[in-house]
Amino acid sequence: MDGHGSVPDDALVEMFELLPAKSLHRFKCVSKSWCAMLTDPLHRHRFAQTLAGFLFLDVAAASASDTAAGTESCHDSVQDDDDDRGESSRRTCPHTTRLSKSNRRATRRFVNVSRMAEPLIDAMFPFLPPPPPPPLSGEGFFFRDVILDARDGLILLARVLHNHDSSAASSPDHHPPASYFVCNPATSRWAVVPSSGWVPSSSQRTTRTFLLFDAATSPHVFHLIQFCVSDMDTVQAIYTYSSSDATWTNRELQWHAGGWRHWGRAMALIQPGTGASVAIAGGGLLLHLVVDTDGTTGPNNLVAVDEEGSVRRAIPLPRRDVAEKDWHSVFVSMSQGRLHFVMCVRPPHGRLSEEQPLKMLVWVLGEDDTGDGEWVLKHTVSFPELFGRIACQFRVEYSVVAVHPDGDWVFFVRHWDRKLVAYDMGRREVIVVADLGDGGGELGGDELPTPYVPLYCESLALTNGMNEQ
């Protein structure tokens, strides 16, 4: 009982079970015995978890020992490395792909930001079934698994067909996936979700698919929401999937009735690259997206959609008394139990300069989290403080990938040097977390780092096979 006196272990476990993840993370530093208890596989499934790290795709030069173009066997080589890119896990497996024309290899990696030895997951997900051979008529094609979303410890991937000879990166959901996978890397459990049946058309050029899951309230059911959008990012159709009945459902009528009819069919634009957040309201899960609902003034609402595709509310975004064309949305996320919205603001009616650079504002929604709640300005920081530049282009030079779920940290990708950086709002400090590697254009350019929070509980929805009704 070293480190905690005469308090029985069972009593400590019950006490830890009631504490938030932020407190538990600090308690790991109290003593070796507390750290061992909090990370013990026998107990950790009972404790709240927080951000452990990020999953990202690294496209690097293939070595001379690599096999011919295509997929490789997970038994060919195994290598776990710790280098100057941060603590990571790299393993050659069926999901490691060598690109023929460029002689480069795509490998998914995990960078640990928890400052603890645990968890160190195998980012290649070798427990998933290997990709099938490409179609006979598709010479030069291969399947790859692309991360689309992550929520409360579960990862959503799409298995899509890719061309070896393609020099341009395609969207992860640009073509009809052969299937989807929802998996838990901490338990190596997974479920197959069939394709929704969507195919590209002149009005529906791509899809955006999101995962809805909450381990605390409904650990054995997950939902998917798929938006079919045009080249202009306008929503044309919507489908939903529930693991409880294992079926896709066309929800166009619900989407239209929930708000589409007021906005106009061609005016509901989901802003790309701005993230998504899931919150609990009214006993169900709501997916929050940044949406332009009138097509003229830019993103003006945070739209909440339930598991059945119905619009439950539209929360007006803060404007900060700036001209309509002098700001844009950057990111939406859930942090410390509150909805957070990140926006970029230019000097009102002025030119950019060292005295008047771009600024980033972080807002938090009021206490009641209702449609009538008000946004409160939480933090303001200038771009010179963040990036050393008076201006950066969103999604070209930088992207926001996460707001820490239990702290005042914002995580960015600096695209010009492929660095994952963290900004501490309390200390106003910028820290380089990891080197993300080249990233490449063939595969890496379309997959931003994905935040990962471990889930050590078993879920009945993950059956290691196809969900059945």
Distance from first to last alpha carbon? 49 Å
Instruction: Could you tell me the CATH topology label.
Output: Neuraminidase
Gross morphology: globular
Major pleated sheet:
5 strands, antiparallel
| Average pLDDT for all residues | 78
The low-confidence parts are 67-94, 440-444
Strand content: 35-45%
**Strand order in the sheet with the most strands:** 2-5-6-1-28
Number of beta-strand segments: 29
Total of DSSP H or I helical runs spanning 4+ residues = 5
Protein name: F-box domain-containing protein
Domain F-box: 7-47
Region (Disordered): 68-103
InterPro entries: At3g26010-like, F-box-like_dom_sf, F-box_dom
Description:
- This protein has helices at residues 9-17, 21-27, 32-39, 252-263, 383-387, and strands at 53-61, 70-71, 82-83, 86-87, 97-99, 104-112, 141-151, 154-163, 179-184, 189-194, 206-214, 218-229, 235-242, 247-250, 269-270, 277-281, 284-292, 301-305, 311-316, 327-335, 338-345, 359-365, 375-382, 398-403, 409-414, 419-424, 429-435, 450-452, 465-466.
- The protein has 469 residues and is mainly beta.
- The protein has a single domain (49-55, 105-443), classed as Neuraminidase, CATH 2.120.10.
- The strands form seven sheets. A five-stranded antiparallel beta sheet has the order 2-5-6-1-28, with no helix packed on it. Strands 7-8-9-10-29 form a five-stranded mixed beta sheet, with no helix packed on it.
- A hairpin with a 3-residue loop joins β11 and β12.
- The radius of gyration is 22 Å and the shape is globular.
- Residues 68-103 are annotated as: Disordered.
- This is F-box domain-containing protein.
- InterPro entries: At3g26010-like, F-box-like_dom_sf, F-box_dom.
